[in-house]
Structure formats: C-alpha cells, structure tokens
Amino acid sequence: MTIKITRRRLLAGSAAALAMPRLSLAQGAKPRITAISQWSAGSDGAAISALGKLFEDRGGVWQHNPVPGFTTDMMNKLRAQIMAGDPPAISQLKGPEIAAWSKIAPTVDISPLVKAAGYADKVSAELAKSCQPAGHWIALPLQVYRLNTLFLSTKGMERAKVSKAPTTWAEFNDTAEKMKAAGMIPLANGGNRPDDGQKFEIALAGISPEVYRRAIMQLDADALKGKEVLAAFEQLRKFSNYMNPNIAAQPWAVNLPAFVKGDMGMVLTGGWAQGNLFKAGATVADFSSGPAPQESGPPCFDLNADCFIFWKPKSADLDAGQKLFAEVVMEPSTQEMYSKITGSIPARTDVNLAAEGFTDGQRNSAQNLRDAIAKDRVVLSLGHNMAQPNGMTAAMIDVLTEYVHNSAIPAVEGQKRLVAAVAGAQ
Amino acid sequence: MKWTRVIVYAALIILALLFLVPLGVVVVNSLRSSQEIAATSLIGWPSQLVFTNYGQAWNRFCMAEHCWGIEPYMLNSLTLTIPATIISTLLGALAGYSISLWRFRGDQFVFGLVTLGIFLPEQMKLIPWVVVLRDLTLMNTIAGLILIHTVQGMSFTTLFCRNYYVGIPQDLLKAARIDGAGFFRIFWRIILPLSPPILIVTVIFQFTGIWNEFLYGVTFTSGGQQPVTAALIALSAAITSEPMYGEQSAAVLIAALPTLLVYLFGGRYFLRGLTAGAVK
Amino acid sequence: MRTGLAPVATGQDAGRAQGIWRRRLGGVLTELAIWLPLSIAAGHVVLFTAWTTWVSFTASSLMPDYTWVGLRNYWSVTRTANFQIAYVNLLIFGFGFVLLTMALGLLLAILLDQRVRGENVLRTIFLYPLAVSFVVTGTVWSWLLNPGLGLQRVVQNLGWQDFRFDWLVQSDKAIYTLIFAGVWQGAGFAMALFLAGLRSVDADLVKAAQIDGAGPWRMYRRVLLPTIWPIFITVFVILLRSAITSFDLVRALTGGGPGISTMLPTLVVYDFMFQRSELGRGSAAAVLMLLSLVVVMAPYGLYVRWQRQRQARA
C-alpha cells in the first residue's frame, strides 16, 4: 500500500527532521550569538566588528544587528523583539536600565562563569553592582570611559600662553579667560542633551564626588538643594558662556578642526574624544588629556560603561554562544583590543596598558580608575544614563539643557527646577 | 503689459533658485571630499572634484561589520515600497469605489474612521503593530512591513479615491447595471479605466511616504533587511565620530533618486489627478 | 449587513439624491471585497486608538502593564515643561507653517498660472522637495541654518561681517527655523493643488469676467480665488495634519533643541514612550494629541456637513 504523502505527513516529517539536528547540536553545538547594539559606525562600529571577528575566530557564529539612530531606536528594537518573544542572545544595555529591563524578560545567571574567570574583583564595585541587579551577574561590561576628562589643544595652549592644565575650577576659568582674550573659543563641547548633562556632572563631580553621589545617584533632596549643586550650576553657566555659540544641537565633532588648529582650546568630555580626534586626522602631538579639575582630593572617576545583557536563550547553540561570548569578553586581551580601537579603557583594572597602541591619556585614565576604586571615589555618569533610569535622567537633563542654552535662567532658578524635576519624575 | 511679465519671470526664477539651494548644496557636497568639508565649511565650492563618494556610498561604506554600502538597502526598500504602494492603491481604489458608489448603511461612518487614520501619529501605533506582527509571526520580515504600510496607506488612498469617484456620473453606472454588470465588472470595466489621474496621485504619495519612512523600517527589520532610510541614519550617526559628509551627501542623493524620478515622470499627471481628486 | 435591491431613498446628501442602487447580493466575494479591506483599515484605527487610550490609564512603563492608575499619567504629563512648551510650539509652528505654506503656494500657483515658458521645469523644481524625506530635509537645513557652518558664515565670508542669521541656536527663535524648512517642503504641494484648481475654473466664468472688463488683479480677487475656496480648505487640512504629525523634520533639524525649546507633541510622545520607557505617560500624551486634533477638525467636519446640506438644498 502506497503511503500517501499528505501535507500533514510532510509537516510531521520535516518537524522530525528539524528536531534531530538539535539533538546533535547539543553535543557539538556551534556556538551562535545574536546581538543588538546601536554601534553601526565610527570607532564603535569598528570595535564591535573586531569583537565579532574574534568570536568567529574562536569558532562561533556572529549575528549582529546594528540599529542606526539614537540609543532609543535600539531600545525600541529590543523592546519589539522581547514583546515578540524573540530577544537576542545579548544586547547593549547599561546602568540602571539593566535592572529595569531584567524585570520584563528572563535573563541568564552568568555568575558561575564570572566566578570561574575570577572577574568580579577586577572591575569597579559600582560597575559590578549595575550588572547584578538581583544579586547575580546578568550582564558584562565591555569598556569603561572616564567622563571627567579634560582635553587640551596643544596649539590652543600655545596661543593663549597657558603652560599647564588647570586643576581647579578657578584655574580653569582663568585659563578660559586667557583663551578668550587670545581670540579663541575656550570650550569646544557639543550642544546635545548628553553633552549638556555631562558638563553639569563634571562640574559637580569636580566640586565634590560625595555630594554628587548623594544628589545625583541617590537623589537626596538636601544634597540637591545644597550649595555644591548651586556652585555647579554657576560653573555650568560659565561653561555655556565659554562655548561655541553656534553649537546647539550639534555634536562636538563639528568643532574638531577648530580644536586641532588651536581656535578652540579645551574639551570636557569622555575618553572617546581621543578616537574622534584620531579619526579627524589629529596626532598625539596635537592634544593632551588628563583628569578634569578637582577642587579637593585626588581626581574622582566619573564612570561611563557599555555592557551587554544576557537574555535567556531559546536554543542550545545560542546558549553555547553566550558562554563563549562571556569567556571572550572577560579576557584581558579582548578588552585590550576593544579599548585600543575606541579609546576607552578596559573594564578590568589589571590590564597593562603600557603596550603599543594606547595613549598616555588612556594610561592615565586607567591608573585614575585604580586609584579611585581604592579610595572609593568612583561615581556614575548622569548624562550617559549610568546613574539613573532613563525617565529620571531625561527629566533632569531637560532642565540642564534648557539652562545651558537659555542664558536668562539664573543658577538659583536652575537648581530649583532640577529639584522640581526630580520630584516630578519619581 | 510687458513689465508684469518680467516681474513674473523674475519672481519665478528667484524662487526657483531658492528652492534649489538645498539640493545644490547636497550635490556639491557629494563631489567634495569629506575631509575638505570638515576642514572648511558645509557650504562651499569643491577645491577639486571628487567622484569616489558615490562609489563609496553605493557599495563600500560600512555599517558595523557589513561593508556593502547602501546597495542592498536600496533593494530592500524597493522590495518593500513597490508592493506596498501597489496593494494599498488598489485596495484604496476598491474601498473608495465601494463607499462612493455602492451605498450601504454606515458608509460615511466607516469612511470617517478610515480617514481618521491619517492623523494617528506613528509612534503611538508602534507597539500595537509589534503585537499584531508577533501574532501573525511576521516580525523581522519585509512582508510584515508591507502589511503595516498597506493598512496604514489605505487611509490616504481611500480618501483620495473616494473623493475622486464621487465625481463619476451616475448615469454611467445605471447604464451598466441595466446591462447586467455587477460590482466587479463595473469596477474593472468602468471605474479603473477612469482612474489613472487619481491612481497616479496615490502612487506618488504612497511611494514617497513609504520610501522615506524610518521608524517602522528600523524596528521591524534586522540587519541586512533594513530599508535605505536606516543606512542614511547610520551615515549621519557616523558624523559624530568621523566626518563623512561627502559620502553622506552622495548616499542621500542616491537614496532620493527613486522618489525624485517618480515625481519627475508622474508630475504631469499629479496635477491632473489633483484637479479631480483631492480637491473636494 | 443588508442586501437587497432597493434604490436608496433620496435624503439630504447630494450623493443620495442621485438615486444610487443598493448593492445587490453579488456573492461572498463582493461582500468580502467591500468589507474586508474597509474593516481592516477602519478596525486598525479604532483598535489602536482604543488600546492606546486604555494604556494611558495604566501604570505601563517599559512594557504594557494593565494596572489601572486613572488620570495620574495625564496629570504628570501635562505638568512637565516639555509638554507645555510643545503645545505652545505647536500653535506657533502650526499657524506659521500652514499659513506661510498656503501663501507661498498660492503665490507660486498664480505665477505659474500666467502661462510661462518652462512651466513644467518650474513646477518640478517646486515639487521636488516633497520627494525628499523629512530626515534629509531636516539635516540639510540644519547645515544651512547653522550660523557657524552655513548661510551666516557664507555671507560673512563674502564680506558682510555683520550679517547674522543664527535663529537656529537661539532658544526663542529656533522654532521659526522649523517653519522655514517646513514651508520649503510643503509649498510645492499647496502650489500644485491651487494651480489645479485655478486651471479647472469654468472657462465661461472667466470669459464673462473678462468681458466685464476685469483686469488680472480683479480677476483673481473677485473671480478665481473665491471659486477655488474649497481647495483652500483641503490644503489647510492636509497641511495641518502635516504640522501636527511632524516628527522626522524636528528630530533631524533641531532634535528638540536648543535645550527643549523646539519640542513638539509628537516628540513628547516619542520621548515618553520610548526614550523614558514610560508607555503609560507616552500614551497619555498621544491621546491628548488626538484630542487636540478633534478640537481642530470638528469645525472642518461641521463645515463639510453644512456644505453638503447646502448643496442638497440648492
């Protein structure tokens, strides 16, 4: 009797055929990883591609979906995937968002892997905490940036006859005035929202990291109403007066040529600016970098880090891929490679940056991190979504960005609005 | 009087030049090297003509690991836009025909609801669409995007077509009914042949709208299937870390070519269609 | 769903007065062809709006979460500076954009109506901005209007050192730059509609006026423009819709800045829903947007109804 090839039989047959490879996959599963990030271009794009290549060299299949646009668009894509029941194996997430998002979809406990690699005590405690919202590791950091970095244009310094980097805000303002007198624009910062947020936090962290912690990270109302925050607002007003008046809504990269030429003197931003400068054709001789001014005590470390969160995988090959990825990303050599490309510093504090390919700025930054961890002077960035969840950050930056671009708002008013914004967003 | 003619021509030429300035800037920038633009100014004459931007934009610039330029994304956009435009236009014609010439209870109400769709902001509809596509297992497929744009496009196309069809004389229909023609026969034999002006208008609108759409394009596709708008945004995101104004300008021109061509060729009919169509 | 052969009784609508036949039961296919696309289209409007309204009353943050919280989201959204600035901007941008676009479109239409040579080329030049995506328009205009990169710098380099055109970076003037870019993009569309209307005016009307000795100025004012009055309404509605749902243009041109001075309602929705991951508040902002639309569109709807009644009676 001939067996009728009915559609049902066909389906059953193919289902069986599909199921079989899965069993064999479990034995020798080729590790595969699906990833979502926003890094489609520039040095970030190059770095993630290099990481992917490394992953493939180690036998994995790398499937990365870069979502162009702002971080929001990438998070939207992630949200859509999660709602559709199909999250990627890893996705770019940072700070308190890791905790928030981990509540809406299951994650993987990678603490055993972290323990095996002895990784936990090699990274800053603040960073480790953000990756363990429920007490166990569900995310791994990729790279760390120091946000409170001061870049100085060599030619600019010559032109303004400034010989040493300012170490307090008073010296900074002094230097800025000298630059202004020399016909330069003292501060080459950008005019975007994160830019405005970061200027404020650099000012406040430079005044007092303890107050920063209480006010920005813990949202303590007394700290927010205190005199340090007021002083930070006043310094922020000075920054806005020292900036390029045409910079609103433009990234700082627009100022790059002027900075290199010496028409603009200083930038207060994160370590990635180094990557920007090299890409624009500058050389090590064209600029110098160091910690931003610190009023008292050794320089603090305003931390910004990118992490990957691990979502519960649906198949054995993704599971294997995650394990491989975790291994790869915790290794010192991987972090070295990544940081060389982007200009960041490794999340691990025990990586030797004396090697070729790192700048003195990066070495200084890494040492700064080690010292700051030892002295408990690490704070998390507000403008780059490390200190607070996105909703609170956005409410605070609304106030800060308006303050920067509207010089009619006095510092006292700015502080009042910040307090109100924090209260309103809670 | 002669001098009024002079004024008219002068005004038109000045306005035309003003309108052309942005396009001119982009075209000129696409012929300058990115380094030069970054070093001097975004508006200026090229010190030397550079033609590599186009090649670079077409199949060499990198989006993370993939250095295949915007060519595959252009193909994706075509695969998305052409079917979605055609389907939404036809469905709109059908719906407009039903509403305007075959009355049924509640037809004005339904028409109002459908038209209201043009006012809904797309951000608001994003999450509901995620749920719909998920249930239809169309996430991350071009088919899913086609579905979205077709359903949303119907709001516009029905509006235009219905306004156009109410102008069709009833006698035509009555004669056909007496001859025994039914719903579909009348549509095929009478309505469609009369429709080219309005169909061209809807095709132009839909093609432009879908081709230039970004939010859904990026959320409902992944990686190599993204439409060309995603690639353009990736290029402008690159600006923050390395100056690529030259390639960006070239890519913008390449990406705008299909819609510009559609306007070029359809422009004549656009006017005729608007006369009869949207003008109600 | 009714079927049956009865011709519809004449009513007040002009359409019905022409005695249209109710559709005959043409089989399942006909029913499907009529109802399937329409119900999907109408249905999606109703369902999505209803869902969004429901979510606006819940505590949704990262994901929909159906815990009822009443009006809390509305309360919190309307009290943010973001939102308040956005609605003020919408008024400024809405009026400015719609009125200027109509004015320029009308001017262009009148100019092109003069039977000029090269009308096709000119018309294409004025229409091409419509073909370009808002993202591109916004980006290019952000270059042109940037004082340090674009127009101001060029003019200054040409010698007029005191020329200033830095509205883009001033908190109180940036919103007007949006109007510039918007008018550039939309004037062609308005022009096309007005031109189409002018060209379709009854030739006899024109001739009669010419015989009466009307010069061109009088012709336009007394005859042509009043005749194409319905087109004004259509253009107004479509431009208004463009202004209210405008998102890509703002994001690309100013990003909502400087500071938050060019926020618009669509950006507020996007900001709350996606950037801050507060779906509940974002949905509340969306519902408020729709309500404001109803407020604006209701007069138009009433006007159409009134006009139809007038036609039926005439």
Q: And the CATH topology of the largest domain in chain A?
A: D-Maltodextrin-Binding Protein, domain 2
The shape of chain C, in one word, is: flat
Q: Mean of residue pLDDT of chain A?
A: 86
**Terminus-to-terminus distance of chain A:** 73 Å
Word description of this protein:
The complex is a heterotrimer of chains A (426), B (280) and C (314). Chain A has 19 helices and ten strands. Chain A has helices at 7-28, 42-57, 71-83, 96-102, 111-116, 125-130, 154-160, 169-181, 193-207, 209-217, 221-224, 227-242, 256-261, 273-279, 316-330, 332-342, 360-375, 390-405, 411-425; strands at residues 32-37, 61-66, 90-93, 139-146, 149-153, 185-187, 264-269, 287-291, 301-310, 378-380. Chain A starts with 6 loop residues before the first helix and ends with a helix. With 280 residues, chain B is mainly α. Chain B has a single domain (71-276), classed as MetI-like (MetI-like fold), CATH 1.10.3720.10. Chain B has helices at 2-30, 34-39, 52-59, 71-101, 107-116, 122-135, 142-165, 170-178, 183-194, 196-211, 215-219, 228-238, 245-276. Chain C is mainly α. Chain C has a domain at 82-288: MetI-like fold, CATH 1.10.3720.10. In chain C, helix 1 (28-56) crosses helix 13, helix 3 packs antiparallel against helix 10 and helix 7 runs antiparallel to helix 10. The model of chain C is unreliable at 1-25 (pLDDT under 50). Chains in contact: A-B, A-C, B-C. The interface between A and C is large, with 40 and 32 residues.
List keywords for this structure.
heterotrimer, A: 426 residues, alpha/beta, D-Maltodextrin-Binding Protein, domain 2, 2 domains, six-stranded mixed beta sheet, four-stranded mixed beta sheet, globular, disordered N terminus, C: 314 residues, mainly alpha, MetI-like fold, 13 helices, 67% helix, 0% strand
